[in-house]
Amino acid sequence: MAKIRVLIADDHPTLREGLVVVLKSTGEIEVVGQAGSGREAIHLAEQLQPDVVVMDVQMAGMDGIEATANIRQRVPTTQVVIFSNFDQDEYIYQSLRAGARGYVLKTSTIEELLDVVRAAARGESLLPPNIATRLVEQISTIDKRPDFTPREEEVLGLLAQGLRNKEIAEQLHITERTVKNHIANIMAKLGVESRTEVILQALKERLIELD
């Protein structure tokens, strides 16, 4: 199996080197480059075309959110995962709007970071439960949309908490196949194509209120 090619973008050299050691030790990841700024991250992403960029938010000159938007536009095959100290809702929301596939706090476990990197490499979006819950715990009364069935509302609520299909199936005592069908219906009704976009569209439709 081919290794996941990762570019690390962070303005702290010590943190970058630590990430290189940890990511390489998994045997699944090849670190193809390091960037110390947003502009350098864009340049290296265009040059190296990694599978995933692990991107800090605040860097000198150009922040990680702007760099993410540029990379997603210039190198569509490269996915971006935000790895940040900042857990403010606005940072998370802006990062996802810029095209990031996930947002992981630096206080998270390495396994949580790896899960998000693996998902991004597959072209999927994954938010750790603590981040997903932050975005959707404001789901006010689920603004009962007439086109959502009660079961779809339940699935949306659990999806928003960061639960995987298997966990949703166990909570609702249904099969994973049924969960997938409900999620497909939710995506279709919201006009989106990924789990992260479900959350973003829910924000836009005021199903989620940010503080």
Can you put this structure into words, describing what you see?
- α3 packs parallel to α4 and α8 (165-172) packs across α9 (176-190).
- Mean pLDDT is 85; it is low at 138-146.
- The chain has 2 domains: 4-126, Response regulator (Rossmann fold, 3-Layer(aba) Sandwich); 134-204, Winged helix-like DNA-binding domain superfamily/Winged helix DNA-binding domain (Arc Repressor Mutant, subunit A), CATH 1.10.10.
- It starts with a strand and ends in a 7-residue tail after the last helix.
- It is globular and about 50 Å long.
- Strands 2-1-3-4-5 form a 5-stranded parallel β-sheet, sandwiched between helices.
- Helices cover 52% and strands 13% of the residues.
- The longest helix has 15 residues, at 176-190.
- It has helices spanning 13-25, 38-48, 64-74, 89-98, 110-121, 129-136, 150-160, 165-172, 176-190, 195-204, and strands at 4-9, 29-35, 52-55, 79-84, 102-105.
- The chain has 211 residues and is an alpha/beta fold.
| CA(first)-CA(last) distance | 43 Å
- Structural class determined from secondary elements: alpha/beta
Main sheet summary: 5 strands, parallel
Based on the coordinates given, report the CATH architecture of the largest domain. Answer: 3-Layer(aba) Sandwich
What would the principal axes of the Cα set say about the shape?
Answer: globular
CATH homology group of the largest domain: Response regulator
Please sum up the structure shown.
This protein is α/β, with parallel strands linked by helices.
